[in-house]
Amino acid sequence: MAESLLGRRILLRPLRPEDFGKWQEVRRRNADWLTRWEPSRTPGSPDVIGDPSAFSLRCHARDREWQLGVGYGFGIFIGGVFCGEINLNSVQRGPFQNAYVGYWIDQEQAGNGYVPEALVMLMKFAFENIRLHRLQVSIVPRNGASRRVAEKLELRNEGTAERYLEINGAWEDHVRYAITTEEWLERRDQLSAVWL
Prior knowledge:
The protein has six helices and eight strands; from the N terminus they run ββαααβββαβαββα. It has helices at about 20-30, 30-35, 50-70, 115-130, 145-150, 180-195, and strands at about 5, 10-15, 70-80, 80-90, 100-105, 135-140, 155-165, 170-180.
């Protein structure tokens, strides 16, 4: 069952079909800010930003990921207003116990520390609730805003993976940051005191 996480200043909760209007407004207003860091839309795939039915299907797919334990998606809400997303993607169990983290925020809210707060909330959930061992955040090197989030939280820089993901039509290098549950246990009190 999907759950909500309450932080000091933000609420993380799964998106619902009724969030479409505000989600669409934020995505459209931030198109230039966001699309340069995102994979291209697969030809023939539904337009989630333009089609409420496609957005609803996306929400239901995310609910199914929760049920299967393979993905955990959250909208970021400030004062009850939607302003971004943070997700645990491609959860792998077995000997890896890993997930990949992705996030974005409304440019109007950038620079206020909301994404680091959301990421610490997500780390707590990942390591303490669903018992993962490792989280990885991969970021295009020139994406300074996203890199500042990982660096502000002192995630371990594991180096650059060359031509790692297709982003906006080009195969882009990514700096890989990670944290394990052992590091979380060592740093949990300090991270919680600052961000939660």
